[in-house]
Every structure is written in C-alpha cells, then in structure tokens.
Amino acid sequence: MKITQVVCQILRIKNVQAKTASSQDSVLVRVRTDTGLEGIGEADSSPEVVKAIVDAPFSHNIACGLREILVGENPLEHERLWQKMYRRTMYFGRTGVAITAMAAIDMALWDLKGKHFGEPIHRLLGGAHHKRIKAYASILFGRDGRETRDIGHRWIDAGYRAVKFGWEPMGPDEAVDIDLVRGAREGLGGDATLLIDAGCVWDARTALRRANRFAEYDIGWLEEPLREDDVAGYVWLRDRSPVPIAAGEGECGRESFRPLIDRHALDVYQVDLSRCGFTDAAFIRSRVEEIGARLCNHCYTSPVTAAASLHWLATCRDAFLFEDCVEDSPLRHELTIEKVQARDGYIEVPDGPGLGVALNEDFVRSTLIAESS
Ligand SMILES: [Mg+2]
C-alpha cells in the first residue's frame, strides 16, 4: 500500500462567534492510497495555517511541506513517518502548529491502518481497558453565577453526572469567580462531579488562593489556572493545592509534554489527539502511567477527534472521565454519520475498523470553504 494523495479540507460554520470554542471550524486531512482506502485525520489549530504546512512545496531538505514528504510512502509505517516528518520540517516545525499538522496526518495513518487490518484503533494500540467511559459535559461559563447554574441544570437534566465550565468571565475578579463556581455547584447539585477550567488566567500565588476558595465547592479539578508555559508555576501550585490540577490541552506532541511529565507538574494530563496524534499520545500515555498520574482527553472540536480520543482513552488503564464537548455547533454533531456523544452520562468506545466513523459528505460539502488542489 502506498500513499497517493494528501488532501486538506477546511470546514467552517456560517456564524462564527467571538468565543473560546474551536468547534466552529475544522481542518480535515484525508490520506488516500493506491488500494482505494482513505484515512481521515483532524487538527485543532488555525485551519489555514495547518493547510499551508501540508500544502507547502519542497524548500530544502529540512523545510518541506507534509504532502511532499508522504506521497509514495507506506502508510502503515507510522513511527518512521512521524520521525521523517519531524526531521524534514525542523526549520519551521518541532513545536506548535507543525506538530499539530503532523498529528492530523498521524490520525489519518492510524485510521488507514485500522481499515487495512479490519480492526479498531484501540486494539492496534494495545487493547482497550474500557468499553464505555463516564463522560463530562464540557461547556463555557454563563455570564454570571445564575446563568452558570442554569447551564448546569440543563446538562444534569440531559443525563450527565459530571460537567465542566470554562473560560471567560473567570479570571480578573475573585468575587466574580466565586459566584461562578457557587452557581455551577448549585446547578449540578451535591453529588455530580464539578470541574473548573480557568483558561490560563493567573500567576501561581493567585491560583492557589482561588484553589483554596473553590475547594469548599468540592471541585474535581482546577484546569489551566496558569499560562501553559509556566511549568515552574505548575510544580509549585500542584505541591500546595487542595484540589487536583489539570492541564496539557495546548501541548503539541511528546516533546511538548516532556517538561510537565519530567517535573511531575500535574495531577491530570489532558491530551488532545488532534494536537498529538496516536503515535505521540501512546508515548505520553506510557510516560504518565509510569509516574502514577492520571490521564484524560481534551477535545473541543468534531466527532472525528472525539472518536480518536475514545480509542486512545480506552487504552489508558486508569481512564476515569471523557471530555464530551456539548457546544451547540453543527460541526460537533453532524460531521460524521455516527453520533459520538454520551447517553445517560456514559459514552461508548467505537469498535469499527480504524476510527470507526465515516464522514457525512453532504455536511462536508455544505461547510467546505477551501480544499487542496
Ligand atoms: Mg481547557
């Protein structure tokens, strides 16, 4: 089997709003082969930038677009191809969006591998420990405590036993922040799991003060209280916080996670398959399990990445929660034929070959705004 074509497609919904939610557009990578099989991958980044990294022509031996690197290769050789892409993009890559583009390719290679062998990706990764996983509804805060409480009610009524609220307006004002968390707890009632995602807003000392105040509302974790690069701050905070500290969603690949893991900076490492791919996510899983910390997925995009996240998370021995984005965006709900969403608070791990989901091509056409020529 040889790769014959690598196509990028950018999808975007009509009414994009100014909010911190990456489910308003998507960049798909479709890797096609001489056997007629196609693998699908997705990156969570700026779609146009990812597309440029795939489409770029040969500039020199270590500055080369990903298509140029991949056409003619055997798609089953995912580890060698990861290393080849890493080396041949060194002048613009190694971190950030180049790794994210590689992650989309890697996701597509594993989808192809699964289709080729007729097996779900979780089996090819070593086997699933879980057939279904408790899901938390992942959503943004309301404008204040009262609105946040009502949002909490809505998702408890929908059957979730865990809900996460995130981002604005949390941050600058302690009274506002406590009102938000109090409202969230009221909305969920006493028993459900409440998770708080601050959105990278504080220094470590302020974050510790908030963690102490939030602890009385029994939060399951405090997510991204600090800037993503403040590794020393995370180490300091985790040693002192009364609540678990979660982060990692912005990290792109194994090298990006390395300082956090080496320094035991977190309680929960959140891995986004659309920024790491399966190859590096499997590596990160092994390293985090080795240090006795917990793993969760991060996913705020489409059912393609949600399916990928489930295949990977099912192979994590101690998986305890799945991030189930419940944003009201058609991209989250209509991009695949299969609905990849929790029912009664739990989500099933897909079991078909590869990712186990197929694109809804009518929906792709209706939202397509750019495609590789
Ligand atoms: Mg987050």
Overall description:
The protein has 373 residues and is α/β, with parallel strands linked by helices. The protein has 2 domains: 3-118 and 361-371, Enolase-like, domain 1, CATH 3.30.390.10; 123-348, TIM Barrel (Alpha-Beta Barrel). Helix content is 40%, strand content 19%. It contains 14 helices and 13 strands. The protein has helices at residues 47-55, 66-70, 78-88, 96-117, 121-124, 145-157, 174-188, 204-214, 231-240, 254-262, 273-290, 303-314, 330-334, 361-367, and strands at 3-12, 25-33, 38-43, 132-140, 162-166, 193-197, 219-223, 245-247, 268-271, 294-297, 322-325, 346-348, 368-371. The strands form 2 sheets. Strands 4, 5, 6, 7, 8, 9, 10, 11 and 12 form a 9-stranded mixed beta sheet that branches. It has a 4-stranded antiparallel beta sheet with strand order 3-2-1-13. β4 (132-140), α6 and β5 (162-166) form a beta-alpha-beta unit. It starts with a strand and ends with a strand. The model has no long low-confidence stretch (mean pLDDT 97). The structure holds magnesium ion. Magnesium ion (MG) is lined by residues 166, 197, 223-224, 249.
Name a few traits of the molecule.
14 helices, Enolase-like, domain 1, 19% strand, TIM Barrel, four-stranded antiparallel β-sheet, alpha/beta, 40% helix, nine-stranded mixed β-sheet, 373 residues, 13 strands, binds magnesium ion, 2 domains
